Amino acid sequence: MAWVLKMDEVIESGLVHDFDASLSGIGQELGAGAYSMSDVLALPIFKQEDSSLPLDGETKHPPFQYVMCAATSPAVKLHDETLTYLNQGQSYEIRMLDNRKMGDMPEITGKLVKSIIRVVFHDRRLQYTEHQQLEGWKWNRPGDRLLDLDIPMSVGIIDTRTNPSQLNAVEFLWDPAKRTSAFIQVHCISTEFTPRKHGGEKGVPFRIQVDTFKQNENGEYTDHLHSASCQIKVFKPKGADRKQKTDREKMEKRTAHEKEKYQPSYDTTILTECSPWPDTPTAYVNSSPSTAPAFTSPQQGTCSVPDSNSSSPNHQGDGVSQPSSEQLQPSATIQETQQWLLKNRFSSYTRLFSNFSGADLLKLTKEDLVQICGAADGIRLYNSLKSRSVRPRLTIYVCQEQPSGSPLQGQQLAGGGGEGSGGTPYVYHAIYLEEMVASEVARKLASVFNIPFHQINQVYRQGPTGIHILVSDQMVQNFQDESCFLFFTVKAENGDGIHIVLK
After folding, report:
1. 300: left (phi over 0), alpha (psi -120 to 50) or beta
2. On the chain, which terminus has fewer CB atoms closer than 10 Å, C or N?
């Protein structure tokens, strides 16, 4: 307990010292004679970090404040966001502070709230490819997590959870009325996500983001209350200390006039308000297992429009159900677009395109999608959006012989087919083969003409003098494109199954 009180005194004295230092800086600016008000407003204590926050007549009062006990870099200009260096695997305290005024948010008084802490990419380019970046890291570091909670060091946190599929996030419950500190450990380093060129690597910055939620009417923690984040860089053990020392030495060599353009180094890092992380709250952070993001609620048929350019052309008009990959319409809502992405196996990009309607997604070019999703998934998504069908390797036209008609061995197969004995024209179905094998012929015939596939024993072709020739893969490969066939079925010799005979 004495250690906790000592830490309180150190941090509070540090905050007071920093606040006094920032006030003294304002005094120097005012005392210099001519001054610019924009320079004063650019100081960190006046800086509005997130342009998406509402700009009302009075300053918005955040309900919570999060303070990370790690010093900011002194080599950051006034107009830039603070930057904090962390050591890989070292535990850093994040204090969860109740910042409400008297009477604010009475609905959470005496109740727990839920916070999710994430380490995410600061660079927007890396945010677009976050899934691939994290999968690559997971492949190189099997069994490791990007972010962990140091539970023995933490104070006041309840029901901590981590998800094996969310290596960069941890979540817990806490009581705003009680002292709460979450100690985090970041295991990824900034240089792990930079291209190795010429031996010199510049590490990418990350962000530590905290999103806090309250319970809704169903007792699930889905109602957003507050979000804040800060910029960090992570170094190998003791690397952050060396970098901090290097920055401090560089600043000491600068003139007094140059130092005025830089922020002072603060003993702690105050996380600044920001927008909530797009996919919060994720399905696993809710106490109820049935809770899921809104777009996962099943609403079959909301964007079910038949696609005339399907990748399986032989299904068109043959009474067979349409394939699951339906065309995305420009009129599709955000929720319908999310459903389309899930249905077409693009679930890893639902968060990335969480605010895209059908029209927004369809406006992206092939180059845009390749840059966002990578070459493989970008091309696949582009083809799915544009309904690019796979061109069949062979097309044949097939008609089933009328069972009541006379033998049609003299039927002319050229052109569009003839007429049956009753004067009824034969209707041919197009069979599109993606594989030039006999089993594909049997499978497509079974699908188009509603024949149980497991009952088909062999497929024959009727040759000269009425002989039956087994249809082999080599024979299929020598079929002429757009050939026409009549076919009939006969029972197998043992009475189990049928044979199909092409004429």
Report:
1. beta
2. N
